[in-house]
Structures are given as C-alpha cells and as structure tokens.
Specification:
This protein is an alpha/beta fold. Helices cover 35% and strands 23% of the residues.
Length: 260
Amino acid sequence: MIITKNISKTFGQGTRAVRAVKDVNIRIEEGERVYIHGPSGAGKSTLLHMLGGLNLPTAGTVTFRGKDVYYLRDRGKSRLRNRHFGFIFQSYHLLPELNVLENVMLPAMIKGGESAAGIRSRAAGLLETVGMDGRLKHRPGQLSGGEAQRTAIARALVNSPDILFCDEPAGSLDSEMREGIYLLIRDISEKNGMSVVVVSHQAPDRGFFHSEYAMKDGVLGRMTNDTSEGSRETKAQMAKGFRMTDDRVQTAEEIQYLKG
C-alpha cells in the first residue's frame, strides 16, 4: 500500500542542518498494523507526516498504491488525505468554533457524496463507541485532554480511511481507556482491512500490531519479534534481532548506536 524509498528530512542549512529522518525504507501492506516507538526527538512524527503526505521529504519518494504522493499537486494531495488517510494528531486540531459532533462530521462533509443525516448518524455512532456520546454539543474548550483525544479519534475514522496515521493516539488517556482505544482501532482495522501506523514513545501493547519498529535520531530499524504473538522478548534479545529496513549491511557502530 505505502512504500518509501530512502526518504530523508533535513531542517536548516549548512552547519546548522539537522537530519531528522535518515534514508528510511518501509513498506506497509493492506490491513497491516505498524508500531514505531522511540524517544522524543527521534524523528517519529516527522516520518509519520511524510508518510501521510503532510511534509515533503528532502530526498526520497513515498508511493501510495503505486502513485508518488508528492508528485501530486496540492489539491490532489488534499483529496488523497481526505478520501484515503485518517490522522490522529498529538495536539488534536479540533476546530474551536464547532462542537464535538460537528468536528467529527467535518471530514465527511468535505468529502461529500452522502446526506448530512447519514454523516451525522455515523459520527454519533463513532462518538458513542469512544465514550463521547454524552458530550456531542460541547465545544473543544469544554473538553478534558482525554475527551479531546477521543473526539479526534472518532473524527479520524469517520471516512473509513484505508490507512490511519496516529501520533501518540492514547497519550492523554489512562491505561483502561488506552486499551479500549487500541481495541477499537484493531477491530476497525480487521473489519475494514484498514492499515494503521502508530508512533509513540511507549513500547507497544501486545496483540495489537503486526510489525514493530524502533527509531532513534532519525534512523529506523525493524524488530524481528512479532508483537501480535506471544510475549515480548527482553530488551537485550530484541537488540540482537534489530535489523535495518533497507538492504545495507549494518556497521558495528550502527548496531551499537541503535542498541542505545
């Protein structure tokens, strides 16, 4: 579904240039749930935004179903994101002038092709699923952080996206709500064949993801253990199984660096 080829992102120029993402190659299949974790400043959010057509790579390509995402004009990228991608942002990005229900309805209203009543019904159903059915008429300024996050999750799902991009989707939630959100995302993924990419500073919950990656200082590596089966290996064991996502042979310095 999504394939990247040596994508990099550099901020600044000359001696002040910072390579936030370094030559990342990743392939995300239809229905695959991918988890990328690493410390703050590792480049996770930058990578997620490049995958989702929001941030032009300095180098490399991102293709979605064979089409170069960044070859499209701005209108084409906007249409692609609205019809095929869903986003859960760390800072929610709810519109303050709209209430909870209206915020969730908005992407579907922009997409068009459906009655307002149908969109309202689907949006209300999603809000009930995430436990927000009692807050439909509230404005974002009247919500707690967890409530705003759950509203953002419902909004991301309203167009039944082919792929859902999540930046710390459960960062403001307690452990019980966190598990509920991941169960919801997994159930929708399995029902609709939706791919999911989550970036977080936390280790993944067991049983939710097919593939696990670790990122540090812009370098992405795939863990060999499958987080959807069995118990996780120890940190030392996973470090031994760490491999780069491209075909390069790792140097001893890279291996030591990625082990931390």
